[in-house]
C-alpha cells in the first residue's frame, strides 16, 4: 500500500515480487504520476496494480499487507483489513525483526531533529573502523527490506527511523537493542491531528519493547519525557566530547548529535581513537547545514531539511545573524512561529518562497520579497551579499506546493547553486 516515487516502495516491491505468487500494488496516485516507479516493475508478471485510488477488496482478500510510512492513521482500508483479520506490517519493522533473528546488531536513531546526522555519524565511523556495517531506514531511495539478503550474523545495522516507521515497530513489538532518541520538538502535528502525545508515543516505540541489557541513549532535552514513558532500561545521557576533538560540523546542536553518536559507538566497542577519527572526519549530510559553495567571498549553506521553525532557529544560531541572508518559506505545518519571526527580523535579509507558511509570516517582516523559484532567491541573495556574509537556505516549512517533495526542493537548490558558479 503506497508505491510512491522516492524509490523505497519500488525497492520493497522488487524484493517481494519473486517471493509472492501474486502481489497487489495499490496507490492513490495515478499511473501517469507513478510512471517512473512503474517502469522498474515491468519485468514482473505477477504484480497487479490498483492505481488512482484503493479498493477495499484488495485489503480484505489477501494474506498480508505492507503499508508505506505516512499512510493516514484513520485509513478506512487499513481498518477494514484489520477487521477482516489481515495482518498489517511496515517494511522497515519487518526488516528489523528478521535482521535481529539473523544475528545482526541493530542501532536505531530517532528524534525530531538530528536523527540523520547521528545515524550517519555512527555508520560512517563504524565503516572507517573496519566494521561490517549497513545503513537503512529513512534513507532517500533505499528499500531497507531489500537489504535482508546481505545481512549476516555479527553485522551492525544503523537505522534512521521516523515516527511513521516506528508505528510498525509498535505493531510488531520490537525495538532496536541500541536506541538513540535525539530530541522531541513540535512537528508533523497536522498528521497527528495536533496530538503531541501521539507523536511522542510513535517515537517511543524505539525503546518501549527493549529487553534487559539493551541500551537507550537520549538527549538531555528529552530525558524527562522518556522517563515518564517508563522505558524498560535506564536512559543514558552522553557526556560532552573532549575539548580537543575538532568537528567539521557547526552549531551547538551538532555537538550534542556527536555526543549521542560517540556514546553509541562506545557501546559498540570502538576505541576512543576510532571514535575521534570518525567524528572529526565526518562531513555534514546533504541538506543538513551543509556548506555547498563559496562565491565572491560569500558562503552558501544548504539546510533544506529544516522543515520546522525550531530547526531553522538552530541553524541561525550557528552564524552571525546580522551577516546572514536567509532563504526560507513554504507550506504551513501549523506550528508556533513567534520566536522564528523575531529571529528573522535580525537577519541581514530574508527572502521567502511562496506557500501557506510564508503567508503567516510575510506581513511581520520588512524588506522581504516572495518568490516562486529558488533561482530567483539565490540571484537576489547574492546581489545583496558582501564578502563574509552567509547565505543560508533553511526553509522552516514543508516543501508542498512549489515542489514535489523535500528531495525535489533540495535538488533544485543544488542545481541553482551550480548555475551561480
Structural summary, described in words:
This protein is of the alpha/beta class and 421 residues long. It folds into three domains: 8-89, Rossmann fold, CATH 3.40.50; 92-281, Mur-like, catalytic domain (UDP-N-acetylmuramoyl-L-alanine:D-glutamate ligase); 290-420, Alpha-Beta Complex (Protein-Tyrosine Phosphatase, Chain A). The chain is 37% helix and 16% strand. The strands form four sheets. It has a six-stranded parallel β-sheet, sandwiched between helices. A six-stranded mixed β-sheet has the order 11-12-16-13-14-15, with helices on one face. It has a two-stranded parallel sheet with strand order 1-2. A hairpin with a 2-residue loop joins strand 11 (290-295) and strand 12. Helix 6 packs across helix 10 (252-267), helix 10 packs antiparallel against helix 11 and helix 15 packs across helix 16. The model has no long low-confidence stretch (mean pLDDT 96).
